[in-house]
């Protein structure tokens, strides 16, 4: 086999490999760009547990797949209300001595999730995840 034929075959194989890589990783690159865009779009939500044993906000809507930054504070005399749990999303944080606690999460499934104290004694609020 001549050297020029061998180089042509190697060149053709290389071109096919590059074309295959571009075609088969296109969706992954688009998905990665979407994730980068979502990371820059953080949904900040604020909830305060009041000494009257209720939340200042009882219904919050966020979008699925976009990071949420929960800012939680609790009046010092709210007892077990110093902890907030978003049931079904595995999110929990505690506000100690009235200081803000921040927790981040990404809601992956649409639905309505209740939040309350760890003992479920406070009237629950609703976190609604939409598409």
Question: Mind explaining what this structure looks like?
Answer:
The structure is a single chain. 29% of the residues lie in helices and 34% in strands. The chain has one helix and eight strands; from the N terminus they run αββββββββ. The chain has one helix at residues 3-40, and strands at residues 43-49, 59-63, 68-74, 83-86, 91-94, 101-105, 111-116, 125-130. The chain has a five-stranded mixed β-sheet, with no helix packed on it. Strands 1-3-6 form a three-stranded mixed β-sheet, with no helix packed on it.
SSE map:
Blueprint: H1 3-40, E1 43-49, E2 59-63, E3 68-74, E4 83-86, E5 91-94, E6 101-105, E7 111-116, E8 125-130
Parallel strand pairs: 1-3, 2-8
Antiparallel strand pairs: 3-6, 4-5, 4-7, 7-8
The gist of it:
This protein has one helix and eight strands; from the N terminus they run αββββββββ. With 131 residues, the chain is of the alpha/beta class. It folds into two domains: 1-40; 43-130, Cupredoxins -  blue copper proteins (Immunoglobulin-like, Sandwich).
């Amino acid at each position: 086999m001549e050297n020029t034929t061998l180089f042509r075959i190697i060149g053709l194989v290389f071109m096919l490999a590059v074309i295959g890589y571009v075609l088969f990783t296109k969706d992954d690159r688009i998905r990665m760009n979407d994730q980068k865009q979502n990371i820059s779009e953080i949904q900040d939500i604020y909830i305060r547990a009041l000494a009257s044993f209720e939340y200042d906000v009882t219904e919050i809507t966020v979008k699925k797949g976009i990071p949420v930054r929960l800012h939680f504070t609790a009046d010092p005399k709210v007892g077990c209300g110093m902890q907030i749990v978003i049931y079904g999303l595995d999110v929990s944080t505690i506000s100690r001595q009235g200081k803000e606690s921040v927790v981040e999460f990404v809601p992956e499934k649409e639905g309505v999730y209740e939040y309350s104290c760890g003992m479920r004694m406070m009237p629950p609020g609703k976190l609604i995840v939409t598409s």
